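The record is given unchanged here:
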Amino acid sequence: MSENTVVVGSRKSQLALIQTNTIITKLKECHPRLEKTIHTITMSTTGDNILDSALSKIGEKSLFTRELENALKEKQVDFVVHSLKDLPTTLPDGLTIGCVYRRDDPCDAVVMSFGNRDKTLADLPDGSIIGTSSLRRSAQIKRKYPKLVIQDIRGNLNTRLSKLNESNYDAIILAKAGLERMGWHDVIKEVLTPDICMYCVGQGALAVECRADDEETLRLLSPLHDNDTALRCIAERAYLKKLEGGCSVPVCVQTEIKNGELMIRGGVYSIDGEESVLDSLTEKLPLSDDSEPKQKKARKAKRHQYAGIIQSDGMTHEMFLLAEQLGTRLAEKMLNNGADTILTKTKSIMAEEIKKEIAKKEATKKAKLEPEAQTSQTSSLV
């Protein structure tokens, strides 16, 4: 951060820019001096550029974050805004999640094709095609509605909505928060509550990533840190990290803070949805210490990180540590109850799928190069 300018990194998609501008608007409200000194740099990520494969078959991490994080490390930007669900549970050295903005509804939503506008998933006839590239969604829908057929669909929200009515999908499943941030409330025909489909770790929350030693940026972001969201997402990320999960395994979660208690419920599914391990834990949160002003406590305390999320001002180390430990304990409990077997099978299956996808891409690339090589040889003979 220079003396006069704050530079923000963002993906180029419409939704990414809406999310980034949400954070910028809130920062300007908290820090009026930023009104004319903050600007955005946009860039494409690996995940944005690979649109012909399901994310689970690509076999890489940081698909939507690597380029932005490189810009952070090289000090081209001061912070970047992500959908928290896109951030791996282990961040690059020297980076941290400087704040987690207040979470929107984390549930999934169903968008129906024109011919099914008055239906829900339960109303669709046998063989109806549901578009999603998420193994988590796919496994849970297969278990709940085995009559439905799941097919991959990729692209940003605009692209997927276009594909819904241009292709043979009867419905697609997307994050409710993303649709609402785009202003597309009217396309949501059904909200999948956690009893039908638990959500993705971090879904519905925005994360602002910055350099861990950039105290000026951390102070700037501090007013946007939502404590309840941070506690829930710390528990979720710790749970996922212990399971060693990601987009290539069907892992889902639900968290809630109610009456001073943090609850986390998790699920691990086989790809076909036929096997699953579900469990939950609840822990009473320690009381926060409000006897000192937040600013004074922040100066006295060292900033700790929990599942990559930095401790917010005015919140105790004990509270954040409890959330992290609760997520880890739930994962350990589930692994001991059979989730390890499901995950091992799933990872083996997906490793083979990734090999096939790589081989298919190599074959396609070779097929394209062969005519070019023949043309070149013919030209040299002439």
Remarks:
- The mean pLDDT is 87.
